[in-house]
Design a protein that fits this description.
There is one protein chain. This protein is mainly β. The protein folds into 2 domains: 47-380, Single-stranded right-handed beta-helix, Pectin lyase-like (Pectate Lyase C-like); 388-448, no CATH class. The protein contains 2 helices and 49 strands. The strands form 6 sheets. The chain has a 28-stranded mixed sheet that branches. The protein has an 11-stranded parallel sheet with strand order 5-8-12-16-20-24-27-29-32-36-41, with no helix packed on it. Strands 44-49-46 form a 3-stranded antiparallel sheet, with no helix packed on it. A hairpin with a 4-residue loop joins strand 1 (47-51) and strand 2. The protein is elongated and about 105 Å long.
Length: 449
Amino acid sequence: MRIKQILIIVFVITISGFFGYRFGLSQSGQFLKSVVEPGSMVSEVSYIVFTDGTNIYARNGMTGEIEFQGTDATTIIQSTINSLGTNGGKIFIKEGTYLLTDTIYLNSRIALDGVKGETELTLVDNVNKNVLSTITTNNNYYITISNLKINGNKQNNPVGLSGIYLWQTYFSRFENLQITNNKGHGINISASSGNKSDVNLFVNNMINANDGDGIHFERYAYGQKVISNTIFNNSIGIYVRDTAESIFTNNAIWENVRGFYSNYLSRSIIEGNVIHDQRQDGIEISGSDGYESWSLVIVGNMIRGNSQESAGNYDGIRLTRMKNSEVHDNIIDGIINGVNYHRYGIYELATSFNNSIKNNYVKGSVTTSILSLGSQTIVRNNYGYVTENSGTSTVINNQWVPHGLALTPSIVTLTSHSNVNVWVNDRNATHFQIGVSSETVTVDWYAEV
């Protein structure tokens, strides 16, 4: 009985102590306030930025401590970047719209990530600057920007610049971004003479409604990979200048002024892109005298319905200054609602030379499917543009025979079935004329443009 009484006394003392501790916490206000702030658990990222609709907070991902807070998103985000210094780190920006009063400057080794489709960085009115930018006084390395919407608010930033400006940037990645509504370019990449931007990846981005170009490589870019982006309603979808050893593949480029334009591009591949409904040319490859674009492979692209600004004025592919390159296995269709729109499916100017144009499927041109004026260029086996043909005809002297070629043949050979002399008197865009030394003869013929 005595043991039972002792146990009851110990139980009462323990319960009283517990409730006394709870009561003390509640009286001090500590119990009613959560010890762990909402969303403040320790994380693998360096900082987590979030908003309650009015204030912006930056929580240290390692300690859980709120280190920066205020109403200016630019100040808070820039503070997290600056605090990481040259060591870099990852900053995760939670869903919400963050209004920026200035450019956010990115250091090397910074990763800026958001919630795809739900995290938006928007310039406020009259900032007239880039939204995001690397530092322009030195090289920049290992930057990652992903899962953000970047809005330049061009209606209220009349001399605004680009969504992302990259200066001498190396080994960086830009993924799952929507870059829209900028007065300048969506993405602008540049470098100074003697320097370069090298080995960057642009993948799965949507770049639209910018007054400048979608992606603009200003100069000295090497090893760029532009893959699976959707680029529409810009000036030029992809613009490249002084660029080399790069890959542009599986991009959807539509409803821009021009789809793809290069000025001195070399040792690069343009492959598997869908380029349609541009107001002018689908692809134009250019350069300058002595600085032609060279050693390119333009292969497997779907190019259709361009020259919408004016039927018959622009081309599917225009080769203004290109040499030692290949254009093959592309589908080039200029038909829009039953009307031919492309001037030429492929137009190689005389300032281009020593190229190979083969195995393309070309239709829907106002003039002719392919016009090749370049010296030493080989044009063969293109559907819709016959460059070689042969047949057997029984003819009399001076009879005209249709050759079925796209142009007047430069070569016509004849082989008589009998010991009768035969020769070519004349030729034009549709026929050649055979001369014979007897009344009737059967000949095998071969004609080539």
